[in-house]
Amino acid sequence: xxxxxxxxxxxxxxxxxxxxxxxxxxxxxxxxxxxxxxxxxxxxxxxxxxxxxxxxxxxxxxxxxxxxxxxxxxxxxxxxxxxxxxxxxxxxxxxxxxxxxxxxxxxxxxxxxxxxxxxxxxxxxxxxxxxxxxxxxxxxxxxxxxxxxxxxxxxxxxxxxxxxxxxxxxxxxxxxxxxxxxxxxxxxxxxxxxxxxxxxxxxxxx
Length: 206
Ligand SMILES: [Zn+2]
Prior knowledge:
The chain is of the alpha+beta class.
């Protein structure tokens, strides 16, 4: 998990309200939401905001979801359904298997950013103040994360960021990224030698 740049304040998603003043229903097919997702995927380097697995239009990606950090259910926080600070792109597992409708809010503030949360917030918190050693994206490899606050502990437990299978999976992804970066910097002739050597070792041609 890593801290994310906040959405630009000019990026507003709130659609026109109904005649009775209520908000229309959520749809990820809405133009403004599609625009937000394109921005968020670039902002998150095509990686889940929580676990870091690829979710964008890249190899080995997982299905993505838009997570309402404070859940949008009618009896929860419908007022933040279209609040950009409340929206992050995550993988399907982080959103729909681990978090589900977990109520992450401890105090509703005057503005969204004044509110308090039970989980580490990718836009509002400095992650390292709450969790040490968590996967921060790209080719960085990690061991088990260490909680630095109750919020950090709850976040690690809810999203199982210390699970050994997750850690080996995310470290494989990090290793593949660093190998791709290394290959991208090799001169053509050396890259060909490398590919031939790999083909000899693995018995397959890539
Ligand atoms: Zn995830």
